[in-house]
Amino acid sequence: MYASAPAASGPEHVEVPVAYDAIVLASFGGPEGQDDVIPFLRNVTRGRGIPDERLEEVAHHYRHFGGVSPINAQNRELQTALQSEVDRRGLALPVYWGNRNWGPYLHEAFAQAAADGHRTLLVLATSAYSSYSSDRQYREDIVNAIEEAGLQDAVTADKVRLFFDHPGFVAPFEEGVQAAVRELTAEGIAPAEIAVLFSTHSIPTGDAQKSGPRDRDWGEGGAYAAQHLAVAEYVMAGLGDAVEGGGTVPWELVYQSRSGPPSQPWLEPDVNDVITSLPGRGIKAVVIVPLGFVSDHMEVLWDLDTEAKETAEEAGLRMIRTPTPGTHPAFVAGLVDLVEERLHGTPSAERPHVTPLGPWYDVARPGDCENARLGFRPAAAGIAP
């Protein structure tokens, strides 16, 4: 529905060229002032009946930073960097930008692209992993945006594959972990006294179990956890010479930013709980890697740079938080590589990936990333459930 013919159904990888004429950067969005905070959170939680009093409990994260989430500014920077790389390669594609939860909205980006004469759009979402909110919901957003803009008979829109294990996304994390471990060992901390915690957004276990296609058993945490673990294993396997004199650095996958009622199970362990336990394991320093995030938005600034930092200080631990990809040249180049895959119909065997799970699908498979609460709703670029 609303996808180009090659991406509407069929094989998991589109291996024929598609003549896209514009790119749309799609993201979550965030408030840009104190008056925006509650309306933004209403958008995020629409349909769940959450009263403003409960939303205010989350709002204080934003109010701590003047009511401004950094995500919109980061997306403007990414849009500019993407356009520069697209232009450098001579692809002649404009890059538009629209959000799910705050202006500029995705339907506004689609409307502008259509007004500028573009008809075959390729959406680049700022989420790397499988889950309802980070994958299928963006495909639902495409349908909603086309309908809200009244473009049902005017445009098609596809979505690039998930890029969790594309080398351009992974490279900034590799560099960050290696630099942090070198810094700590240079201070005299032994490798075995350093813990690397790969942190990502927790999601309800019901959603996690439905992440990814249902044609295989992904294990506890579904494809969402499996993808993060595979990337973390790759990063740690490449640590190599960063460990002075050899030695093994312990690591684990942890979760953050949990919300929802206490009665609802979410993926664990929580990053703060793990940090608190580290001194009892003989750990003196912790490296926190925001593996689930493409930029330093609110969950990184508050949950890691504020709360996790305070927890580490209370535990007497030296802490380093490594960078997110942001506008790292490798990441920007990797995103444009994903665009070129679809422009040229690159065979799946030639698509770069650093884990056995990739390259991920262009055309979502049946049952992929169902909303555990609402079920399946119309979504672009995939086989119908």
UniProtKB/TrEMBL annotation:
It is found in: Cytoplasm. Pathway: Porphyrin-containing compound metabolism; protoheme biosynthesis. Belongs to the ferrochelatase family. This is Coproporphyrin III ferrochelatase. Fe(2+) binds at residues 201, 299. Involved in coproporphyrin-dependent heme b biosynthesis. Catalyzes the insertion of ferrous iron into coproporphyrin III to form Fe-coproporphyrin III. The keyword Transmembrane helix does not apply. Pfam families: Ferrochelatase. The gene is cpfC. Its EC number is 4.99.1.9. Fe-coproporphyrin III binds at residues 69, 138. InterPro entries: Ferrochelatase (IPR001015), Ferrochelatase_C (IPR033644), Ferrochelatase_N (IPR033659). Its main location: cytoplasm. It comes from the Bacteria. It catalyses: Fe-coproporphyrin III + 2 H(+) = coproporphyrin III + Fe(2+). Keywords: Cytoplasm, Heme biosynthesis, Iron, Lyase, Metal-binding, Porphyrin biosynthesis.
